[in-house]
Amino acid sequence: MRLKDKVAIVTGAGSGFGEAMAKLFAQHGASVAVADIRKDAADRVASEIAASGGQAVAVAVDVTSGQQVEAMVQATLERFGKLDIIVNNAGITHKSQPMLDVDEATFDRVFAVNVKSIFHTAKSVVPVFERFGSGVILNIASTAAVRPRPGLTWYSGSKGAASLLTKSMAVELAPKNIRVCALNPAMGVTPLLTDFLPGGVDTPETRAKIISSIPLGRFSQPEDIAQAALFLVSDEASFITGVCLEVDGGRCI
């Protein structure tokens, strides 16, 4: 098992990419803190992991709150005794629309969830990783950081920030034996899909328009992202840091 005896936190793990990562990590031997703003969703995923023979704890967290993020880390340490991995997966978007139609409150929320959360988790987990001598931070960015689509300007900016933060954090934290990487998924089949589609409308036509821009001819699936994440957080990737890996069916070529 590739994550035997590891302990991981996955934020936004109540559905979508986060759920797939949490379950795959557990299958490969990790004890997982299933963190989500929706406690019922976190409970469901943690229960399903336990039912499959894995180790998991559900944690309710709003990643825009430094106090709640710190409590999430402490709850994980209390339950499992250590921490090796954190995946900053929790994210939101605004509806695909002209940039000037997005209101200020929505802009602030997108940057709080997608960017400030990375600040909060770093403040809480880096001292823990230093204490244990190593650690891995995996940020879930987006192909929007590389090839932005019209209508998603502010979301794309938030993911561009996540991508650059990944590289800067990787350089600064490398002497502490802390690796920092990111994934850039293509548009995927998650609860956010409708908001990403042109005009925020889910129809066969809007889906076809997006799929036509992906050379491999399909949306990303949560399992695609989970498999890539598994590699980057595992010891097999011990000499990889600062990488922002496209998992995108060729979208960014």
- What is the radius of gyration computed over CA atoms, rounded to a whole number of angstroms? 17 Å
Q: Oligomeric status of the shown chains?
A: single chain
Distance between the termini: 33 Å
Query: What is the CATH topology assignment?
Result: Rossmann fold
Q: Which CATH class is shown?
A: Alpha Beta
Tell me the number of structural domains: 1
* Fraction in helix: 40-55%
* CATH architecture group name: 3-Layer(aba) Sandwich
Summarize the structure.
The chain has 253 residues and is α/β, with parallel strands linked by helices.
Q: Any overview of this molecule?
A:
- With 253 residues, this protein is an alpha/beta fold.
- Helix 1 packs across helix 8 and helix 4 packs parallel to helix 5.
- The protein has one domain: Rossmann fold (3-Layer(aba) Sandwich), CATH 3.40.50.720.
- The protein is globular, with a radius of gyration of 17 Å.
- It has a seven-stranded parallel sheet, sandwiched between helices.
- The protein contains eight helices and seven strands.
- It starts with 6 loop residues before the first strand and ends in a 6-residue tail after the last strand.
- Helix 2 links the parallel strand 2 and strand 3.
